[in-house]
Amino acid sequence: MAANRDAGRVYGLLTEFESPSALVAAVRQVRDAGFRHWDVHTPFPIHGMDEAMGIRGTRLPFLILGGGITGLGLATLMQWWMNAVDYPFAISGKPLFGLPANIPVMFELTVLFSAFAAFFGMWGLNGMPKLYHPLFTSRRFRRATQDRFFIVIEARDPQFDAGRTREFLASLGGSVVEAVGESAED
Fold first, then answer.
1. Distance between CA 181 and CA 133 in Å, rounded?
2. pLDDT digit string (tens) for 33-70?
3. Contact at 8 Å (CB) between 22 and 165?
4. This prediction's pTM
5. Spatial CA neighbour of 144 closest among 20, 10, 13
6. Which of 35, 36, 86, 153 has the fewest Cβ atoms surrounding its Cβ within 10 A?
7. Distance of CA 47 to the CA centre of its chain
């Protein structure tokens, strides 16, 4: 906890790896060391990375289910209110509210609200939109989309101590450990 005061304006420490296998081995060690605020950056998906990082499932499916149920409920309520209460139109003894005639609207609003929940839920859970990230200031990090693999441990992590974390990252076998500042001036 007190170690975070030592971090100052440092966003975190970045270490670089040259192969996916070295990265996965290092990721397991970071996870086992108990760090909570850290991430991995690779130029392509690596099979088994989520498991190696200890990433749990997302809450997004529950948000989508909630959106779908809300859409279905609103569509049913809206059509019942319009047809049976607000403007009843009795013709030839037909019921004021019949389910088969209302299914298309119920389906469409279920899909619409599910899609909105998926879209905006994903943005919200990912903290988007984020137009700036401190890692963009690192020249070395520019190769994350080409041929290098990175682990970054953020300074806000409760276990972060600039000296000990640097030593830990150096022991993982990465080629370089670099401090990344919060802004370009750091």
1. 10
2. 999 999 999 999 999 898 899 888 889 999 999 999 99
3. no
4. 0.71
5. 20
6. 86
7. 18
Structure tokens at 87: 């403007």
Backbone torsions φ then ψ of 162, nearest 5 degrees: -50, -50
Neighbours of 77 (CB within 10 A): 10
Is 182 within 8 Å of 134 (Cβ atoms)? yes
Q: What is the Cα–Cα distance from 104 to 76, expressed in whole angstroms?
A: 11
Taking the C-alpha atoms of residue 126 and residue 161, their distance in angstroms, rounded to an integer, is: 26
Task: Scan for tokens 């401090």, then name that residue.
Answer: 179
Domain boundaries of the chain, sorted by first residue:
3-56+129-181, 60-125
Q: Tell me, what amino acid is at 88?
A: P
